[in-house]
Amino acid sequence: MDKVVASAGEAVADIPDGATLSVGGFGLCGVPIALIDALLEQGARNLTTISNNCGVDDQALGVLLYAGRITRTISSFVGGNKELARLYLSGELEVELTPQGTLAERLRAGGIGVPAFYTPTGVGTMVADGGIPIRYDAEGNVVETSRPKEVREFSGRQYVLETALTADFALVRAAKGDRHGNLVFRESARNFNPLAGMAGRITLAEVEELVEPGEITPEDVHLPGVFVQRVVVVGPEGKKIEKRTTRPRAEAAAPAAAGDEATEATA
């Protein structure tokens, strides 16, 4: 039951060329940076990634993208990454765009064994009707588009059929995990991590803190260990901020007037 491995490199060692990966994170929040960097060093190629976004330029999944390791991505947001746009429009990368909530539910469905589901999201758009460019050629011509999806009516409302997503491997990052693979995610870093972890046939979790079994109460578990096969301790280092914003500190409060001090003293 002890699922801890010695290093991120050991955790990703058997990911082969052509593997499909579901990867947690949103922007740079909750991204399994250590596992991604280890996979870059490991050298696997022709990867398909399923994630909210495919890195932020040359960070997170972007390191694999810039290295030419990703050939297809299924994502809900592809902005903020100039290299992705270049690869997509030059025919070097296939992109399947999926509405964000639909992407989350497709991963969850894959994790629980539901093959497909109906959703109102995308009805009346190219999401349902097809025609979204998936692949271009080197001259910038569209050579593959999304196909039309089944649309049915329930109780007077139309719904589009979406299929589940599963992956050969899942890469996630958690704030805390135990040796059995039970994971806890911190605040917004939870994002797509539990869903990506559920969808993977083999799920690799990098954790900031390792605790012993029983230290995480059952009601606090966000992703049960039944979904997790390998745990690697990476510590709190390595986290990145996508867009750092600051503001000037407020001026120190002016000293209270003598009369105010006297009033406070007698209150």
User: How large is the share of residues in beta strands?
Assistant: 25-35%
- What profile does the largest beta sheet have? 8 strands, mixed
> Low-confidence runs (pLDDT<50, min 5 residues)?
259-267
Span between N and C termini?
62 Å
Helix content: 10-25%
CATH class identity of the domain at 8-115 and 164-233: Alpha Beta
| Name given to the CATH architecture of the domain at 8-115 and 164-233 | 3-Layer(aba) Sandwich
Radius of gyration of CA atoms, rounded to a whole number: 23 Å
Q: Structural class, from helix and strand content?
A: alpha/beta
Counted by DSSP, the helix tally is 8
Tell me what the structure shows.
Helix 5 crosses helix 7 (193-199). This protein is α/β, with parallel strands linked by helices. The strands form 3 sheets. Strands 1, 2, 3, 4, 10, 11, 12 and 13 form an 8-stranded mixed β-sheet that branches. It has a 3-stranded antiparallel β-sheet with strand order 5-9-8. It has helices at 8-12, 33-42, 62-66, 82-89, 100-112, 126-129, 193-199, 258-266, and strands at 20-23, 47-50, 70-75, 94-97, 116-119, 133-136, 142-145, 151-154, 157-163, 167-178, 183-184, 200-211, 230-233. Helices cover 23% and strands 27% of the residues. It is globular and about 50 Å long. It has a domain at 8-115 and 164-233: Glutaconate Coenzyme A-transferase (3-Layer(aba) Sandwich). A hairpin with a 4-residue loop joins strand 10 and strand 11 (183-184). It contains 8 helices and 13 strands. Mean pLDDT is 91; it is low at 259-267.
